[in-house]
Design goal:
The complex is a heterodimer of chains A (261) and B (280).
Chain A (H helix, E strand, L loop, with lengths): L7 H25 L16 H7 L2 H35 L2 H15 L2 H15 L5 H25 L3 H9 L4 H30 L2 H6 L7 H11 L3 H29 L1
Chain B lengths: L6 H31 L6 H8 L1 H33 L3 H16 L2 H12 L4 H8 L13 H25 L3 H9 L4 H29 L3 H7 L6 H11 L3 H23 L4 H6 L4
Helix pairs in contact in B: 1-12, 3-7, 3-9, 4-7, 5-7, 5-10, 7-9, 7-10, 8-9, 9-12, 11-12
Chain lengths: 261, 280
């Protein structure tokens, strides 16, 4: 029997939608290599001057480095808390763990503007405004859902009898975790880590409220750039970001393929 | 009830639970509290919902943009999911990548790309003028049009994921059998495919709508400060006007609107469909 394939109209319109998704993002590549001094397509030839501007600017480099450090710490928090929580919920599996899991999903459901406003006031009391640790904690907590989702998915494919066997043979809880459960779900944890990292790396709304001068992350600098001076250096930064994110995603895909294949 | 042997496993949940309570739930609870206590205790902030024209205008603008965004995202997302669901497995991988890459690319980068394209001296206007199709640049961004273009661009991948998941559950033999029995493409689509994919369509609609309601960055960058949606309006009240009572009132309304939408639709759709596909 022949498989049912989409018709000409369906194929054509799907291509149009795909172009709508991808074309605007790709347009920044030629714009970033323009030889002009304003935002435009290259006229006479290609030039890498705007990349040189960005990579030679202490401000941009400082923001990139700061965003990276914050994302590393935030990912650590999210992965540690999220993984343990997903394992606990998976093993106990009761009505109350369903509630816990719903609680962990809140940061995806509630708009970050609401959290950011609340945090602005809350952190003022704790003296965490405009502090590295403040931003790292906020990004870590809001990164937990990504880890809980990916680790729960990995656990769904894990045979619970393995855990029971280990416990039955006298392994303690921490031994079971260390030697039986964690190695089997490592790819899921890594996926979660990648998503938690991208989440922190890209996050802007919270940063706009709880950081001002000492903490000036990359998204914050881009935001100011778009609002104040639209120059081709912005396009160069955008391209570098796209390359970085796509690289992380391809890494995640490669890991998944290794696990599945 | 908690069983004794589960105690150790509950301890694993504890760190996440404490972090979440201390650093997520507490700040949000504070937002709710402030909306009832500042500037004076009582419901005065909520009275504004019925008396203030500017508050009502912001809510109506937000609803209008969100409904339009949801409808367009569902339409475009459906077209894409249909193509992906019926493609052969190797083509499917590429199509899915085309959806996932935009999903994970920074929202700032995407808004920047749209500004580059749509502004007065942007690439679209320059191309159209160069071709002699228009004499005056079109007003494509820093208005509602720009917001919708940017928001739909952001939301289409979110619409695709739940729809694709539900389309994949459709047995391909059903479609092939209908074809073998002489049904036309349109009949197969209208009588078999569309009804079976409705749960995914509904789940995608809920997801896109609640994400759109509280969207901050894209409307702020592409709206140019003239068309205000609730998220930007809240930011303005808190950061620029220091009207904490009004800002937190709107934040509370936003959260309630989202939770009510979820509660209504959780009776109609399986919420796992809405949030299950996030990372996959």
């Amino acid at each position: 029997m022949m498989a049912h394939r989409p018709g000409l109209f369906a194929r054509g319109s799907a291509w149009v939608v795909a172009l709508y998704l991808l074309l605007p993002i790709s347009i920044i590549i030629p714009v970033s290599m323009t030889d002009q001094r304003f935002l435009s397509l290259p006229k006479e030839g290609l030039s890498l001057q705007h990349y040189a501007t960005v990579l030679g600017s202490p401000e941009w480099l400082a923001s990139i480095w700061q965003s990276f450090l914050i994302a590393v710490v935030a990912t650590g928090i999210a992965v540690a808390a999220g993984t343990l929580c997903a394992i606990g919920c998976w093993r106990v599996a009761s009505r109350s763990t369903n509630l816990v899991r719903a609680l962990m999903l809140l940061p995806i459901i509630i708009p970050s503007i609401v959290y950011a406003v609340g945090l602005y006031r809350y952190f003022a009391g704790l003296d965490l405004l405009d502090r590295f640790m403040g931003v790292a904690i906020a990004h870590g907590v809001t990164g937990i859902p990504y880890v809980v989702i990916t680790v729960s998915t990995a656990l769904a494919a894990f045979d619970p009898r393995l855990e029971q066997a280990a416990r039955g043979m006298g392994a303690s809880l921490s031994q079971t975790l260390r030697w039986v459960i964690l190695p089997r779900i490592a790819p899921g944890i890594l996926s979660g880590a990648i998503f938690a990292f991208i989440h922190s790396w890209d996050e802007l709304v919270i940063v706009l409220f709880i950081a001002s001068r000492d903490v000036f992350t990359l998204p914050r600098r881009i935001w100011d750039g778009i609002n104040e001076n639209l120059d081709p250096a912005m396009a160069a930064v955008a391209v570098l970001l796209v390359v970085f994110t796509t690289g992380l995603l391809l890494l995640d895909r490669a890991l998944r393929r290794r696990r599945d294949g | 009830m908690m069983r004794r042997q589960d105690l150790g496993w509950w301890l694993l949940i504890l760190p996440a639970f404490l972090l979440m309570t201390a650093f997520y739930v507490a700040p949000i609870a504070q937002v709710l509290a402030i909306s009832f206590t500042e500037p004076s205790p009582g419901l005065s902030n909520y009275e504004r919902l019925f008396t203030s024209e500017s508050v009502q205008r912001v809510i109506l603008t937000t609803l209008r943009i969100c409904i339009l965004t949801t409808a367009l995202s569902l339409l475009l997302g459906y077209v894409l999911s249909y193509r992906i669901a019926l493609a052969n497995p190797s083509a499917q991988r590429w199509w899915i990548l085309a959806v996932l890459v935009p999903l994970w690319i920074s929202v700032l980068v995407r808004a920047f790309a749209w500004v580059t394209l749509l502004r007065r001296q942007g690439l679209v206007n320059e191309t159209l003028m160069g071709a002699g199709l228009i004499t005056e640049p079109l007003q494509l961004v820093w208005n509602e049009f720009g917001i919708v273009v940017g928001m739909v661009h952001y939301m289409v991948p979110y619409a695709v994921l739940p729809m694709l998941a539900s389309m994949r559950e459709i047995d391909p033999r059903l479609l092939a059998a209908a074809r073998g029995l002489g049904a036309s493409r349109i009949t197969i689509f209208a009588k078999i495919f569309l009804p079976l994919s409705l749960p995914g369509l509904l789940a995608a609609g809920v997801l896109v709508f609640i994400f759109s309601l509280g969207f901050y960055i894209t409307p702020a960058l592409l709206g140019g400060g003239k068309t205000l949606m609730v998220a930007e309006w809240i930011g303005l009240q808190i950061l620029d006007l220091l009207r904490w009572g009004l800002g937190t009132m709107m934040a509370t309304v936003l959260v309630v609107a989202i939770l009510v939408t979820l509660a209504i639709f959780s009776r109609l759709v399986d919420m796992k469909r809405v949030f299950g596909g996030g990372g996959a």
